[in-house]
């Protein structure tokens, strides 16, 4: 009987304040979509960092015949210098930092270049003599690239030491800032959702002050009186969360997996599995919003 009464009260409240309930659903949907997008963007950043950092190689470019670098004043790197650099790369001092190192001659560099750019018209006139010999160094911990870079920068026979992180990290920084912007917008929208849910519950409680007064006179507890109002807000917020999860799923499935992943294939993308991973958190946030709004509102507006 009590359950049937509570359900009937929820139905009455939703019908009386249908437009406000729809507003709660929509604002919760929009706000949690931003929250989910920020979470997916952060997961995307983490996936890219893990994938790209695993591929990080420090490249030690040796001096070509003509170079303006001060370390190449004596001309092209000699065999003795190359051997000394190789021995140092394989020394015990660098063993904790270097996972693997190999020498790429001009011929090897030219073969790799031709394999990658064989169909490009501008690559047809290049020869092996125009390529640059180098050492390719894979690291045990990509975060320690500076140790290897510092050891070989400025050495005679070494023109330059480069690390792809110089290109990757600015992109990661931009994406992190976009994630913060999305999180900021989500925070504003969540505040709007709390205020709107609070208003909806307040209007519903005020419109039924007579009923709540009668219930209090017959000995109903505070929880029994307040529960229908709390559930109204929770139901509306949960529907908004469900719509948010559905919107994120369709967006990731069709825009990321079916389109973006087919167009740009060298980046590891988040998928619908990550959406389902975030779904419980989004529903939990929706219920938390309704709970906070109920606690703030009901203690005042259900008093008679």
From TrEMBL:
Q: Which UniProt keywords apply?
A: Cell cycle, Cell division, Cell membrane, Membrane, Transmembrane, Transmembrane helix
Indicate the segments annotated as coiled coil, or none if absent.
Answer: none
Q: How does it sit in the membrane?
A: Multi-pass membrane protein
**Which GO CC terms are listed, alphabetically?**
plasma membrane
Q: Which residues cross the membrane?
A: 21-45, 180-203, 223-256, 276-298
What does this chain do? Part of the ABC transporter FtsEX involved in cellular division.
Q: How does it assemble?
A: Forms a membrane-associated complex with FtsE.
One biological process term in Gene Ontology:
cell division
Family (UniProt): Belongs to the ABC-4 integral membrane protein family. FtsX subfamily.
The UniProt entry, under InterPro entries, shows: ABC3_permease_C (IPR003838), FtsX (IPR004513), FtsX_actino (IPR047929), FtsX_ECD (IPR040690)
All copies of domain FtsX extracellular, residue ranges: 56-161
Protein name, UniProt field: Cell division protein FtsX
Annotated ABC3 transporter permease C-terminal domain ranges read 185-303
Query: Where's it found, cell-wise?
Result: Cell membrane
